[in-house]
């Protein structure tokens, strides 16, 4: 990869503060609605959204092999299908166009006015049509916490956990971008000791701090992807809130796994940050504690040092940061996850999304869910307005942020932030 | 609904035998590739595929409110989005066009040649882009058999089973139409008593006899669908083989449910039969054995009398019918399934597919999987070539059929038939 695009010394003629998540070294991809009500594919520098459809139309991508309407679409799926070589050519070209030394667009006011929007003027959309969504369960700390609470502290991890990245399928239709409020789900729950379930609003709505990666078309049915080639099929990553209803989950999930406890909503940060942008933050994950089967053997540098934070903001209140974790804590890396997912021949398509599972770290303030932070409600979490939370209240907003930093440049994901509304009431009842 | 379309006395000017699954009273919807390599939406009468795109272009749907290219598409999703009123208008019009008394197309040889293809000339495609696929677990006999084998015969059903239609999310990307061969999956399995899993081809590949229904856009996020309105959102049904690898399943599925044991392949019959065509076969299902919560209360006539059969055909051998079951055995009906799926506000889209779960009946020859038919391999199933099967062998073809019959008219689904090939070998290894 040309180092220039990731060079920490590169500056842009678009200004931004030193703590921006979106310096010229990032160049994420997303989809937004412009002030003219047009949907386009774009990128972001500082607080400015850049219309890649308009850029392409004006010839700024000439020489890059792209179909004519590649960026005038409402999802990134076709672009992602073009593969890693094309992603790099486009990202490098964008870096060049916005380099402080390049006058081409910098000095063309008419073009700038058609291409660049303030972030306040655009509305971020879901960046991909997600065909299939899979959620892993790859944090050893999280699996251990859950096993300790609900099963046996001495055998918290189930027997398969250290042998495979355990996963299950989730629901694509309810994945939404940051900003869209969700409703508290209703459903069946049961009181301990009772045999008769009751119906009503979930009393234990929770978040799960996760990240997710988006794939390209990776394989034909029947054909596995190896650990070594897996990163070639990962377009990029987002921060992901896998909303959960713990009381619904507890009653429904044996034997086939979580269903209604999860599929009422899942939300993602709207900018997909490429693996190329994350390359300077590559780091090592935990060592494997047990030998793994050959198809899961991986070098130990296939993860990234990504700081993660979660805030709760009560209605008309101020945010309290209640969790600080890091993506690098995960026991199983993305390459192992993708190799495991396809070892049976399962097909992976452009736009598929794979969640990490809750990312809990080793310390109590790094746990990635209210279930763990409040330890099943036994240790309520204090907010800075004097109130406390065991789980999420109606009208609370949950905000997750992710960013990398190990020098002058910060590469960030922005945030995924969604408010929890009360149970949906049909209008006729008002 | 105009009775004429379902009138058993109606004849078509297209000839077919009395045991055809596709009389003029059926009028299913599918997608096929014609001899001219064009993909179109179509229907079927007898052994003839009918190009609805060509029919529309020639004006045969004039007066029916449809966009111009409604049937010149490679999936039914947009048509399904148009809703039940439009499905009925189109199905009724098709019945009229092919009625033996209607000379309009019957006597126009040029039009007939452009519209009607022999089934041998076309290649059936997946009829819908399946956004999300959910699999229920709604046969009490199946759940009881599995619980008896693997848990406790005296408490075979888990505590939640009689209170809700238990379900989990499956993988859309590997749903294929009848006719496409699949590869035996590889994966991790473990020997009883061992702590170390091994890697290799699954030794226990199985089928699951299911049916599935296809939905239209049903709701916004947060808004449940009631049992009473659920049928309005069901476009139609297919026969469904939920291929399974029992040894992979056993090791991976606790606590988050089946994953690689299922997502290597699932196959469906290619013609979607509408609920309107099934209306004459509406029947009652089993009584609820325990009171259910209000949102699951249903009149007892929301199921259909659909005969189901499974054949195994060894390579170059003849088929043996090893299972005869019926859709009406299911404890939970489709309306209850859809109401449960959305009670938490989960959004359902056009083209989503929901499987019934294995449809086992009360008698041992009505069990819907090899696991149950051979009772974990203890009672091998005899084939008519003198061989026996505990599970599915390489090169075996599994064929499932479904049809309704309670008078002179048979309404059928055709079949879903797929061969199991050995584990995929990369070409470079040959």
Automatic annotation (TrEMBL), chains A, B:
Binding site for Ca(2+): 135, 208, 210, 242
Annotated ranges, domain Fumarylacetoacetase N-terminal: 25-127
Cofactors: Ca(2+); Mg(2+)
UniProt GO MF annotations: fumarylacetoacetase activity; metal ion binding
EC number(s) stated in the UniProt entry for this protein: 3.7.1.2
Keywords tagged on the record: Calcium, Hydrolase, Magnesium, Metal-binding, Phenylalanine catabolism, Tyrosine catabolism
One GO process term, biological-process aspect: homogentisate catabolic process
InterPro entries named in the record: Fumarylacetoacetase (IPR005959), Fumarylacetoacetase-like_C (IPR011234), Fumarylacetoacetase_C_sf (IPR036663), Fumarylacetoacetase_N (IPR015377), Fumarylacetoacetase_N_sf (IPR036462)
Gene3D superfamilies recorded: Fumarylacetoacetase, N-terminal domain, Fumarylacetoacetase-like, C-terminal domain
Active site: 142
Stretch forming the signal peptide: none
Binding residue positions for substrate: 137, 151, 249, 253, 358
Pathway membership, UniProt: Amino-acid degradation; L-phenylalanine degradation; acetoacetate and fumarate from L-phenylalanine: step 6/6
Domain Fumarylacetoacetase-like C-terminal, first and last residues per copy: 134-419
Identification of the protein by name: fumarylacetoacetase
Organism, as annotated: Nonlabens ulvanivorans (Persicivirga ulvanivorans)
């Amino acid at each position: 990869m040309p180092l220039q695009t990731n060079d920490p010394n590169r500056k842009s003629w678009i200004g931004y503060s030193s703590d921006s998540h979106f310096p010229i070294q990032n160049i994420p991809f997303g989809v937004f609605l412009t002030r003219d009500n047009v949907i386009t594919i774009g990128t972001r520098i500082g607080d400015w959204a850049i219309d890649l459809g308009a850029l392409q139309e004006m010839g700024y991508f000439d020489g890059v092999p792209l179909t004519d309407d590649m960026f005038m679409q409402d999802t990134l799926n076709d672009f992602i299908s073009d593969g890693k070589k094309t992603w790099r050519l486009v990202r490098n070209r964008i870096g060049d166009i916005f380099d402080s030394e390049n006058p081409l667009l910098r000095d063309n006011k008419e073009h700038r006015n058609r291409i660049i929007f303030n972030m306040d003027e655009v509305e971020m959309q879901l960046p991909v049509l997600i065909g299939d969504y899979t959620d892993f369960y790859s944090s050893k700390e999280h699996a251990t916490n859950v096993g300790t609470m609900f099963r046996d502290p001495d055998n918290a991890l189930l027997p398969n956990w250290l042998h495979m990245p355990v996963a299950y399928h989730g629901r694509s239709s309810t994945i939404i971008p940051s900003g869209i409020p969700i409703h508290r789900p209703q459903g069946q729950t049961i009181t301990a000791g009772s045999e008769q379930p009751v119906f009503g609003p979930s009393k234990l709505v929770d978040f799960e701090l996760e990240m997710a990666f988006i794939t390209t078309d990776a394989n034909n049915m029947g054909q596995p992807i190896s650990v070594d080639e897996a990163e070639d099929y990962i377009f990029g990553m987002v921060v992901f809130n896998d909303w959960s209803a713990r009381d619904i989950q507890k009653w429904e999930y044996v034997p086939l796994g979580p269903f209604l406890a999860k599929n009422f909503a899942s939300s993602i940060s709207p900018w997909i940050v490429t693996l190329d942008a994350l390359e300077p933050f590559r780091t090592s994950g935990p060592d494997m504690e047990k030998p793994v089967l050959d198809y899961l053997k991986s070098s130990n540098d296939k993860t990234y040092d990504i700081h993660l934070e979660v805030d709760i903001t009560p209605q008309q209140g101020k945010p309290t940061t209640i969790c600080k974790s890091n993506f690098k804590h995960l026991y199983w890396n993305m390459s192992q996850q993708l190799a495991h997912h396809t070892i049976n021949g399962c097909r992976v398509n452009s736009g598929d999304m794979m969640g990490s599972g809750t990312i809990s770290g080793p310390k109590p303030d790094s746990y990635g869910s209210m279930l763990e932070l409040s330890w099943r409600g036994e240790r309520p979490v204090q907010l800075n307005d004097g109130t406390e939370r065991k789980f999420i209240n109606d009208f609370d907003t949950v905000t997750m942020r992710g960013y990398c930093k190990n020098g002058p440049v910060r590469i960030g994901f922005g945030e995924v932030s969604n408010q929890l509304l009360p149970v949906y009431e049909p209008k006729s009842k008002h």
